[in-house]
Each structure stands twice: as C-alpha cells, then as structure tokens.
C-alpha cells in the first residue's frame, strides 16, 4: 500500500518522481525501504558482514566462495537465499572478484528469477526504472571491460535475463550504502526510492539528493553526472558555480600538485600504511602552507588524510589540530543540517574530550547532535552515541 504522505507522478523533463501530499517537517522520514538487492563494496569485502553490514576484523568466511563474510551464523543463514547462486559464480572465478556493479547485477537477476508477482515494490518496481540504453550506447564505446565481459559470460550459464538491460538500469539508478559515519561500504538498488532524476517535490519546491561528491567543482560534478547518470545538472550550485572560487583558492601550480598526489595518498590510506601517509601528507601541507589556504578542496582532503593517520598512530593532539582546521571548510561547503559536518564534529569532539578540553567538546557534541537528530533521527545509534558523549561532558564539567 502506498505511503499516505506522497504520491507517484511523472515529470516530462525529469522522469518518475514522488510528490508530497502534505507539509513535511525537517528531519521527518518521508519514505523508508529495504534495497531490492545490494552488495558489499570490494574494498570492504573482508571487513563488512554481507548480511547486516556490521564492520569487524574477524568475520567468518563462506567456505565455498571464500569471498562473502558474516558476523554470525544467523546473518549467514539470513543471507543464504541471496547468496547461494552468487556463491557458485564466485567459486568458479576464484581468486578473481568481479566489480561491485557486476556483482550487484548478478544479485538483481537472481532475485528476478525467483521473485513472484506478489513480491513487487509498493511505489516503483524494478521494471519501471529507466535504463538509459540510448545514452549509454552513444556515450560509451565499451560498456563492459574485458574482465567484466568474462564475468558476465560466466553468469550467463545460470541466468537468461537481459544482462545489458539490468546493467544499464544499475548504472543510472543505484545508490551507495553508507554506514553511520558516511563510509560507503556497499551499493544497492532501491526501486521505490529513486529514479535517474529529482526524487520528489514538496509544495512545488524540489527536494533533491546529491548524486555526486559535493567537494568537487561544478565542472567535475557536471561531468560525472553526465557520464554516470546522463543528465546535465541544473541545480543552483552547479548553475552558478557557487563555491568554485573557494574550492580552487590559492596558487594553481601548487594545488595542482596536491590534486595529483591525492590518489597515491589514498592508496596508502587503503593499505593502512599510516606512517608513510602521515609523513607525505605533512610534507605537502608544510610545503604549500603559504600559497594554498585550508578551504582549497585538495588541502581539505589532505587534512582529513593526515587526521586519519594521526588517529591510527595514537597521535591525538596532532589529529585534533588537523580536524579543527578542517571543520572551518566543512562549515563552508556543507550547509546545515548536513551529516558530513555532523560526523566531522563528532570526530573532533571525541579528540577534544580525550584531551580534556571539555567546554570545546561540549560545543562540538551539541552541534553534532543538533544536526544528527535531523539527518539521522533520534533513534539512530550514532545520534545516541553523540547524546551519550554530550552527557558525559556535561557531567564532567559539573564536577569541575
């Protein structure tokens, strides 16, 4: 049965959408649904449960495919209906692991083959999603890499559904699945929750979600959206090129060097080579301190990388220095209420609390809570964690 606070509609310019039938309050849940299908991102296959997405370092591995991991026997049993066909394919491909998109396509097809008509989604079914085949065929010379073609041919042994059609649907409509701290641990398809374009309207004012990284210039965002989702973004930020001057502030030759170095530094981060990451990040930050300000997006990324390295190396004082510098830029680029700023405030608040800077920590936790009660909801585990931290600070300040 359709939710009573909205209705389906079709916009000639923007595709399928949902429209509010009453006034909605900030922080109110408009619609909630489980993904039709999802898979763990390749970088988190060893550390995230394939059923509940809980993170851990000692997860049990599937004895057959050696790829899927679970935090408990219950989770493994619950995931088996979606994993059993996938398991055979992954076992045949050992030690190779298909890309996230290929694994998601396989899961969707396996579910389509076993689904009855009564299992259809309430708002939008998967067959109603636009696949944008025409755009993909004309903008991509080759949709599949050689490796992906091999994987898909292996899947074809088990399925007869149109792989290309589903692949194009996934390309245009899938969402990243993030944990409470906004780390992208997976990818999924939510037929009821989204189409290629604007998801809903409220009193003729669009409520939109960001399909790309906010910390990128207008040119980069539009280019990514055109390639991935095949539309030209006309939002205010992209149309006016708002914040671009701040994002690329400073001497161009200097921030170009920073931009080019970041992929290597992110690789060090993914490999947990913390000492190397910290040494190289600090060298860049010191070298260009006088010519590129903290609000430059590449300096901001360096500050985040250096902060992560310091925390991993138990250098909390230096981590707090980098986190405090980054907060100013987060405030500039992430307007309230935005979960990214709340998570950064929580991280900084924890460091302030550990350092005994209780009044500063109380301020950070208060700001984080005010944002998270809207973006995450008061029942969310992360919101509750912030609330506990805030109470601890207030209690400790009361004893001083």
From TrEMBL:
Occurrences of domain MYND-type (ranges): 49-87
SUPFAM superfamilies noted in UniProt: SET domain, TPR-like
Protein name listed in UniProt: [histone H3]-lysine(4) N-trimethyltransferase
EC number: 2.1.1.354
UniProt source species: Sinocyclocheilus grahami
Reactions it catalyzes: L-lysyl(4)-[histone H3] + 3 S-adenosyl-L-methionine = N(6),N(6),N(6)-trimethyl-L-lysyl(4)-[histone H3] + 3 S-adenosyl-L-homocysteine + 3 H(+)
InterPro entries assigned: H3K4_H4K5_MeTrfase, SET_dom_sf, TPR-like_helical_dom_sf, Znf_MYND
GO molecular function: histone H3K4 trimethyltransferase activity; zinc ion binding
GO biological process, one term: methylation
Cross-referenced PANTHER family: HISTONE-LYSINE N-METHYLTRANSFERASE SMYD, HISTONE-LYSINE N-METHYLTRANSFERASE SMYD3
Annotated Gene Ontology cellular component terms: nucleus
Pfam families xref list: TPR_12, zf-MYND
Keyword line: Metal-binding, Methyltransferase, S-adenosyl-L-methionine, Transferase, Zinc, Zinc-finger
Source organism superkingdom: Eukaryota
Enzyme class per UniProt: transferase
